[in-house]
Amino acid sequence: MRKQFSFASLVCLPLLACGGSNNNSKTVKTVDGKAADAAAACAAAASYPMLGNMGYGLDFPATMNGSQTIVHGQVMVETLNTTDVVFLQLNAQFGGFGSGDIKAGTYALAGDDLDPTACGLCFYVWPKSLNGTTLNVNSAYFMTEQYMAVSGSITLTQAGGSANGSNLIAGTVSNVTFKHATIASDGSLSYNADGCTTSVGSGSFGYKLQMGSAGSAAFAGDSEIHANGFDMPADAVKLRHRTAE
């Protein structure tokens, strides 16, 4: 079976300007050899001790699109602090899931799971993406501002079930390191020359799965999301599709 992929970016309000002070900065050299520390300030914090406690989970059942199958996908988004979030997308038949469906287990982030075009467990930090209670991201943001996981592990204690009102996307993360990435519209990956990295030491997550709308991949936030103070507009999410033919 030959696997293909296509991307549909996540879209919301206009992109926030990335900046602000933090301790994760790099020193670069100017043409005349002088240090210019401020020019390479990193958008993400140097590290995040643990995950946050506000977020949501989505389920996108496998569907047919002509002769192609859009494979089963699930998404978890959770806050790290008041401005930064983590985004985890699970894709059946890719990466750590091999040729099978999404399922519970412990997965090392390595091999195909470090490649945006092949990952079954795609894990990112989105720094400076949350403004108050609204996520602000667009296609330009995803090309230049994401940090993609390069090592660590994820344990899924519950995953792969349908959005039936009781199934969860739940698990823990351990010692995950992320690097500032440049991801082109075709999914090709390079790491930013600024050398910025961040990490998430540990943490758990667990959210009831909501149904993601096939095709447009839009969803409507429920009372749990709003009660957590994480307001997501109905058309905020466009799922990146993986297809197999």
Output mean pLDDT. 77
Going by helix content, strand content and strand pairing, the class is mainly beta
Q: Major sheet, described briefly?
A: 7 strands, mixed, barrel
Helical amount: under 10%
Spans where pLDDT lies below 50 across 5 or more residues: 6-23, 27-39, 214-227, 233-238
How many DSSP-defined strands? 18
Number of DSSP helical runs: 2
| N-C termini distance | 6 Å
Shape: globular
Task: Supply Rg.
Answer: 18 Å
- β-strand percent reads 35-45%
Spatial ordering of strands, largest sheet:
5-8-9-11-14-15-17
What are the secondary-structure elements, in order, as H or E?
EEEEEEEEEEEEEHEEEEHE
The total domain count is 1
Concise structural overview:
With 245 residues, the chain is mainly beta. Helix content is 4%, strand content 41%.
